[in-house]
Each structure stands twice: as structure tokens, then as C-alpha cells.
Design a protein that fits this description.
The chain has 2 helices and 8 strands, in the order H-H-E-E-E-E-E-E-E-E. It is α+β, with helices and mostly antiparallel strands.
């Protein structure tokens, strides 16, 4: 029994020491959170922001980690570069462009919620009509639900790119 306790105690001490060395103080964390919330607010207020997508959640099947995908809102234009897995109806031969397009925003509605914002963006492309429901939290994390007229719903998660807009 003693031969298990000593290595376990050493592992616990090593993990807690790493946490102490790398943790930020309460003041540093509060300042960082305030800066992030301010950057999120500024992006929403100006209508210019980018969300980098890191995970997709198709209706059928398992979620998948993805890289190098994003949505960008700038000057009343939505640039969508998203992967799509799901059923599609009435789409062009070969599948069309899917959720990869640049289109003028038809409607853009923002509602402030307790810990962030809920944004509903409606766009119409040559192939389809889409509703992008974005929940953007004060820390920059985001969840996105895309409903299309001719495609099955799909969801994503990601984080606001605080440094893309200068």
C-alpha cells in the first residue's frame, strides 16, 4: 500500500505546483475578462467581427474538430467559410457552394443577454436562404446554429478573433 501512496502524493504535489506557477491572479483574470468583454462589445457595436470555428455538430453523427474555418461580419456583409455535413434538398448538381459564400446581410438583430449577445443574421445567396443564430459570450466563445431552407440544420462552436480587426 505504501508503494502506491508515495507516487500518488508526488503526482498531486507536482500538478498543484504547476497550477500555482501558471495561474494568474484574481486581478489579472478580472482585467483580462474585462478586456475580452470590451472587445466583444466593440465588435458587436460596430458590426465587424470574425468567429474562428473549432468544432462542428451535425444533426446526425458525432461532433468533429475542425480548423481554418470562420464566419466574418463586416460592413453588412457575411463571409461564411464553413464545413457542412448533412442532408440537402434542391441544391445544384455537385452540391453547390454550401455554406461557403459572401453575401449581403438581409437582417441583423442583436439582443444583449446576461453573459453576452444573441445575434440573428439572415442572408440570401444564389443557392439558398440562411439564418445564422450566433450566441457570443463576453469571453469571446461563440456557438452558431445555421438553418438553411434547402439543407439540414448544423451547429458550430468557436471563438471570436480579437486580433483580426485593427
Amino acid at each position: 500500500m505504501k508503494k502506491y501512496i508515495l507516487p500518488l502524493l508526488a503526482a498531486v504535489l507536482a500538478v498543484s505546483a504547476c497550477g500555482i506557477l501558471s495561474s494568474e491572479t484574481r486581478e489579472e483574470r478580472a482585467a483580462r475578462e474585462a478586456r475580452e468583454a470590451q472587445m466583444v462589445h466593440r465588435g458587436i457595436e460596430t458590426g465587424n467581427f470574425t468567429i474562428n470555428i473549432d468544432r462542428m455538430y451535425p444533426v446526425r453523427g458525432t461532433s468533429k474538430t475542425v480548423t481554418n474555418y470562420s464566419i466574418k461580419v463586416k460592413d453588412r456583409v457575411l463571409t461564411s467559410y464553413l464545413p457542412y455535413i448533412g442532408q440537402a434538398w434542391r441544391v445544384p448538381y455537385g452540391g453547390g457552394h454550401g455554406l461557403n459564400f459572401k453575401a449581403d446581410i438581409g437582417s441583423y438583430n442583436v439582443v444583449k443577454v446576461a453573459d453576452g449577445y444573441e445575434i440573428v443574421i439572415a442572408v440570401k445567396t444564389d443557392e439558398d436562404q440562411h439564418i445564422y443564430r450566433l450566441t457570443l459570450f463576453d469571453n469571446g466563445r461563440a456557438s452558431l446554429d445555421v438553418q438553411s431552407q434547402n439543407r439540414e440544420r448544423i451547429s458550430y462552436s468557436g471563438v471570436m478573433d480579437f486580433y483580426s480587426e485593427k
